[in-house]
Specification:
Helix content is about 50%, strand content about 10%. It contains four helices and four strands, in the order H-H-E-E-E-H-E-H.
């Protein structure tokens, strides 16, 4: 005695959905990259540590340069060498009303008057209106205005 079984439309839908979900899950699993080996994990950790050390070195170098710009550089030639300034006035192109900045050619410090707009546009500059005015007085520049 054999029993005949019929598949109802609901059962057919359930089977189709189940098979499709299984195939999609298998395909997704096959596309995943293999888990890294212990050696690959060790190499990755070493590269990350090297990047961290390099980043700390760059950060320290930037801090040293900033200290020299603020404290270590006099922004002028030695008196025995005839004196004079290392600084030049640089005009900002395309920024209406900007007084520009004073650039020390020795330490590469950019001195600007303390303006909110320039703090946004040039956040790495040194914002000191008094120092800007002092260095501007020492620059031999025509067309520059003190702020």
């Amino acid at each position: 005695m054999s029993k005949e079984q019929t598949i109802t439309p609901e059962m057919r839908e359930l089977i189709t959905t189940s098979v499709t979900a299984a195939v999609v899950a298998m395909a997704t699993e096959l596309r995943k990259p293999p888990l890294p080996t212990a050696q690959e994990q060790a190499d990755l950790k070493q590269r990350q540590e090297e990047r961290r050390i390099t980043g700390e070195g760059v950060k320290q170098q930037k801090e040293n340069e900033r200290w020299i710009q603020l404290n270590g550089c006099t922004h002028e030639h030695q008196r025995s060498a005839g004196g004079g300034t290392h600084c030049v006035w640089v005009q900002d192109n395309g920024i209406a009303g900007s007084p520009g900045y004073v650039l020390c050619q020795k330490c590469q410090g950019r001195f600007r008057p303390d303006e909110p707009l320039m703090r946004k546009l040039d956040p790495n500059a040194i914002f000191d209106t008094a120092k800007f005015n002092q260095l501007m007085n020492e620059c031999v520049t025509t067309g520059a205005e003190m702020f």
